Amino acid sequence: QVQLVESGGGLVQAGGSLSVSCAASGRTFRSYAMGWFRQAPGKERELVALITPRGSTNYADYAKGRFTISRDNAKNTVYLQMNSLKPEDTAVYYCNQRNGYWGRGTQVTVSS
Question: Which residues of the chain have pLDDT under 70?
Answer without folding.
Answer: none
